[in-house]
Amino acid sequence: MGGAKQDERTITVGSAASHAGDTLPRLRSAGEWRTVAMIATCYAAWLIIGASYVVIGWPAIFALAVVIALHSSLQHEAIHGHPTTSAGWNEALVSLPIGLFLPYRRYRELHLLHHGDSRLTDPFDDPESFYTSHEDYDRLPRIVQYLFGLNNTLPGRMLLGPAISTVRFAMSEFSPTP
Q1: Residue 26's beta-bridge partner residues?
Q2: Residue 83: per-residue pLDDT
Q3: Terminal alpha carbon distance of the chain
Q4: Which of 38, 48, 90, 141 is most open to solvent, judged by the fewest CB atoms within 10 Å of its CB?
Q5: CA 95/CA 33 separation, integer angstroms
Q6: Residue 152 CB-density burial (10 A; 0-12 exposed, 13-18 middle, 19+ buried)
């Protein structure tokens, strides 16, 4: 895409600032208002569900899990330059840690490593993959094998996936690098 086409599709949010360097963000395209609305909806849902936990009870945890998954998806979009043309504004829009574990900047760093390698889909080299070789899998305790098997189903991915991913991420962050 050429620069001119990109500029034609970019719209300003708010009015232009009076001096250089103090400009408001520009949406990447006219359709990005949907992304901004989804970000606002995500935070509102998190607040409403969290505040109503006393009334809703344990089902609120499942609803919050869906909202946190949506937030992670929105963070992914921000890393790839949506909804605005400003990385700083995109970060500001999605960096509230509603998932309570993975800081946005660390996720961004790892995700850009994931894209910065020609071996993007290699399960052993991809920093976003927690692939386990057959040999390593066979050495795992049976309960861990069982949990990994459950994680390969949709209900398991929704219920166990966040916990498994969090534990594996923490282990990779705090283990010595070779």
Answers
A1: 12
A2: 95
A3: 41
A4: 141
A5: 18
A6: exposed
3-state SS record for 33-90 = HHHHHHHHHHHHHHHHHHHCHHHHCCHHHHHHHHHHHHHHHHHHHHHCCCCECCHHHH
Question: Contact 80/32 with Cβ under 8 angstroms?
Answer: no
Residue 11 backbone phi and psi in degrees, to 5: -120, 155
Give the residues of the chain that fall short of pLDDT 50.
1-22
Residue type present at position 120: L
Residue 147 CA to residue 124 CA, distance in Å, equals: 20
Beta bridge partners of residue 12, listed in sequence order: 26
Predicted pLDDT of residue 32: 92
> According to the model, what pLDDT value does residue 178 have?
54
pLDDT for position 14: 36
